[in-house]
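wait is this the right file?? whatever heres the structure
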């Protein structure tokens, strides 16, 4: 028998994700890494006490340099501007986003933002009073942006790989977009938080952006890759010519990030470069295959993002409403993410999709998939 659950109200995706954090639930909701540590990662975690002593002794800028070199290097971002003092570490990528938003609003009132994308990006931009103009993902990837759009905004913001679609902007497309932004004096901002999952997102973005001459800002993130219990670094990386008060606002908010976390990031990134990242990519691919196999014979179900490699996967639930499926599986203790809020400009476009997290242990993923599968097959109100 289904448990009687209190009605829920969730105003954003994070509130939906918070509902899943009860210890007894199967949580396939948030995109944070919750899989088991690998053997090499466990070894690094076991060394945290000695890293603490090291972090307390050594100069923080030296540790920050090593962490930056290792993390950006692991991801192919060799032209990063650490030497020029432009890789600003933050407690999280959301904080980097907040600093960017507060900087942008000093010179501009509107941002062109990719649609759909994770809703804390539009929420943070709107939170400082910026007006948002949607740029459809297909449009951003396939065509030049219209002059009328570029004339009315101070920034074009692209998430690549995108959350939830996994779509990656190619090098040729990034080059062209950067040229357009240079031509119109518009800042090109990239959220690359998911780039570790997809080798296609690991060409040297900083070389492309610098060559274009455009004003640019990139947000990098360690937070989606490793199961480090929310110990993470977000980096805010502006171009030399950005002409925004980013450093000032960063220093209004923080002095620096923890050298202990930076040391841990360095060690995890070195392990990543030494095969750990490829192993993670294989794990996510295996989890994706496991999920797809579990739903292969369920009528009216499809996986939307055929080529995605990121650690989340969208499921189209046919003629059902995602919220109805969400409620049905919630009564079985499974939490997934309904997709309408990713479609921040037109939520109805996401109402027949769910997003499932792949960065979990296979047993959790399989148990969750089976609950979802039987809800879709057995519940009469959920027949597609
Ligand atoms: C694309 C993207 N950027 C940024 C964030 C924010 O990350 P955090 O909560 O670690 O600040 C998220 C969160 O899931 C995200 O999906």
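ok assuming it is, sequence goes like this
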């Amino acid at each position: 028998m289904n448990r009687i659950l209190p009605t829920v109200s969730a105003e954003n995706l994070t509130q939906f994700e918070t509902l899943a954090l009860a210890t007894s639930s199967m949580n396939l909701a948030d995109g944070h890494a919750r899989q088991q540590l690998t053997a090499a990662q466990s070894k690094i975690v076991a060394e945290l006490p000695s890293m603490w002593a090291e972090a307390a002794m050594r100069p923080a800028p030296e540790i920050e340099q090593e962490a930056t070199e290792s993390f950006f290097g692991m991801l192919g971002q060799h032209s990063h501007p650490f030497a020029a003092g432009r890789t600003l570490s933050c407690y999280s990528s959301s904080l980097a986003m907040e600093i960017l938003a507060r900087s942008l609003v000093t010179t501009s009132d509107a941002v062109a933002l990719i649609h759909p994308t994770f809703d804390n990006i539009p929420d943070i931009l709107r939170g400082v009073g910026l007006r948002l103009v949607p740029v459809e993902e297909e449009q951003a990837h396939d065509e030049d942006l219209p002059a009328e759009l570029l004339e009315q905004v101070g920034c074009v913001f692209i998430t690549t790989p995108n959350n939830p679609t996994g779509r990656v902007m190619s090098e040729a497309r990034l080059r062209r977009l950067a040229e357009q932004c240079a031509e119109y004096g518009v800042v090109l901002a990239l959220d690359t938080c998911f780039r570790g999952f997809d080798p296609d997102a690991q060409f040297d973005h900083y070389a492309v952006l610098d060559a274009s001459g455009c004003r640019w800002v990139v947000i990098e993130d360690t937070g989606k890759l490793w199961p480090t219990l929310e110990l993470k670094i977000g980096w805010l990386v502006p171009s030399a010519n950005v002409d925004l008060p980013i450093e000032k606002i960063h220093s209004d908010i923080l002095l620096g990030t923890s050298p202990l976390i930076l040391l841990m990031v360095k060690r995890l990134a070195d392990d990543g470069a030494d095969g750990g990242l490829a192993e993670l990519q294989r794990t996510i691919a295996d989890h994706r295959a496991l999920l797809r196999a579990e739903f292969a014979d369920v009528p009216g179900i499809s996986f939307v993002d055929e080529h995605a490699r990121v650690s989340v996967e969208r499921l189209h639930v046919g003629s059902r409403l995602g919220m109805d499926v969400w409620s049905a599986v919630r009564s079985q203790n499974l939490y997934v993410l309904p997709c309408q809020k990713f479609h921040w400009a037109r939520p109805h476009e996401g109402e027949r999709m769910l997003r499932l997290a792949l960065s979990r242990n296979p047993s959790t993923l399989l148990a969750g998939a089976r609950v979802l599968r039987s809800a879709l097959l057995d519940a009469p109100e959920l027949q597609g």
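The CA atoms of residues 31 and 357 lie 6 Å apart. so i think its the right one actually
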